[in-house]
Amino acid sequence: MQYAEPINNLIKAISRLPGIGEKTATRLALYILNAKREYVDELSSCLQNVKEKVALCPVCMTFSDTDPCSICNDAGRDPSTVCVVSDYKDMMALESMGGYKGRYHILHGNLAPLKGVGPDDIRIGELVARVEASGIKEVILATGFDAEGEATSAYLSRLLRPYGVRVTRLASGIPVGSFVEFMDGATLGRALDGRREVL
Question: Is omega for the bond preceding 18 within 30 degrees of 0, making it cis?
Answer without folding.
Answer: no
